[in-house]
Amino acid sequence: MEHIEEFKAPPKVTSLTQLVDELHRVFSCDRVNVDYVKRLMEGYVSNPEDWRKYAKRDKFKYTRNLVDSGNGRFDIMLLCWPESIASTIHDHTDAHCFMKVLQGELQEIRYKWPTDETPNNGMEELGRTRLPLNGVCYINDSLGLHRVENPSHSERAVSLHVYVPPFTTCQAFDQRTGRTQKCRVTFWSKYGKRITYQPSMDNSAPPDVHTIQYNCPLEKTCGERPRLTRQHEAIQE
């Protein structure tokens, strides 16, 4: 996916169904304008009647709820955030990730990729961004790593995510040391129905973890992704 020139403004979408339909059209091409997709998602004003059936929650952790599988080219999902819940620091497996806040407010904390100095100094923070209701942002691995959190102690939050292409594993990072753990990502529900995760028969398979994404200036990059990734013990969320 590239930032290519796009002269046509995105259509105004008034429902989640219209947004999903337009995303199918946009991602049917091999080259997509990132800014076009961001403007498209900004044009949709959150309406709980559109997405309530997908918002399957858990009291103690955030949940990933699949809305549309995008014919295997992309995933659209709702993430439901309880009060004061945060993700681990994570990457996005070379995927392009768009996110829109549908309810409440979220905060992204962005980090540089670990270096040889990270075990001594901890992971370097690049910045913090508050995302209000209907706010939209974009990230990929060239822009860094991040964690996402619901900063409210009293209000829940919901966010809409688009991942291109879909991914089933990511890396979680220990903030103090930069150590990584390869993790599977799973769904709490699909198409509005709760599912039961069936663990792999392979006992060596990595533990589950959830993932997310967020906003930082697109022109601010964080250097190239390190070629060497070490595996370490699991990180508790």
TrEMBL record:
Residue positions binding Fe cation: H90, H92, H146
Pathway listed: Organosulfur biosynthesis; taurine biosynthesis; hypotaurine from L-cysteine: step 1/2
Broad enzyme group: oxidoreductase
Entries under PANTHER family matching the protein: CYSTEINE DIOXYGENASE, CYSTEINE DIOXYGENASE TYPE 1
Names of the cofactor(s): Fe cation
Keywords, sorted A to Z: Dioxygenase, Iron, Metal-binding, Oxidoreductase, Thioether bond
UniProt similarity note: Belongs to the cysteine dioxygenase family.
Protein name: Cysteine dioxygenase
Catalytic activity: L-cysteine + O2 = 3-sulfino-L-alanine + H(+)
One BP term from GO: L-cysteine catabolic process
An MF annotation (GO) of this entry: ferrous iron binding
Crosslink (3'-(S-cysteinyl)-tyrosine (Cys-Tyr)) position: C97-Y163
Cofactor note: Binds 1 Fe cation per subunit.
EC number: 1.13.11.20
